[in-house]
Amino acid sequence: MVDRSSGSEDDAVDPLSGVLDAVRLRGSVFGAGELGAPWGVQTPGIPEIVCYVVVRGAAHLALLDASRAQVAIASGDVVLVEAGRAHALRDSPSSVAVSFDELRRAAGDELRRAAGDGPGPLRWGGPGPRTTLVCGSLAVDEAGRALLGSALSGFLHLPAETAGPGLLGVLSALASEVAAPRPGSRAALTRLAELVFIHALRASIARGAAGAGWLKGLGHPSIARALAAIHADPGAPWTVDTLAGRAGMSRSAFAAEFRRHVGEPPLAHVTAWRMRHAARLLEDGRLSLKDIAAKVGYGSDEAFNRVFKGWAGVPPGEYRRRAPVPR
After folding, report:
1. Which residue stretches, if any, does this entry annotate as coiled coil (predicted)?
2. Domains in the chain, start-ordered, CATH in brackets?
3. What is the number of other CB atoms lying within 10 angstroms of the CB of residue 99?
């Protein structure tokens, strides 16, 4: 019998790829805007992660909740806003912000479209300094929303000076599509938005900018090996000892470091990851509940049902009935 929890670390997938595979990321682009100061837009929050790229100029982002977190955004910066978070984007904190719907109506007469299928930039605002901005969204499934939300903690700001060559190349391509839309530009911008997101997460890991959560854990080489193992095989019979072995650490040091970086004990993360994987299999609809329970490490249907209900709030069968039809 093969012990699945004791293979070489090379057998485990890249942990960030494992996360992105699990959340079914789909990018889309709202559009590009050339906004003259003073300008401001706001949203009560949408179900998707929002991605802003300042191609030229500057902006200011503020969350419209109790945290009142805010950040100045310079040319070349990228900001990812957690799904569902109300926020405002302005040229300065004192500018009046209108809703995105009001902006579309007010700028309707000035919306310029290219000859191809890609939209030209929306031009709006006052006579002051102009900011060129690309707005996109990144949709994830329900199980992935909380997972990515814990990594973003409101918003994730990536200054231009911390961007690596890969992200700089993507931003250059994005700026080119905005400046000169051509046939296929909308599809190109959508793919570029997804790449911006991935590169932003990579850069956040590299610079240790993430707060406690799995994203911070990926920045710790030993903890990352354990996370990769969990994400590659959630159904394995993981224990703190076997995960500490994957990390190359003592049991006590591993348990303490894992909790400090990831924000939860190792086996709590195993359980949560198993439930996210189970949710995806339930949405897929091809496996029986018994088979799904086995795939995520439960020999007993009753035990799986109990844990899944505690995680999702509903039993597995009801979760499957409520899930959207796979596309």
Report:
1. none
2. 24-210 (2.60.120.280), 215-322 (1.10.10.60)
3. 12
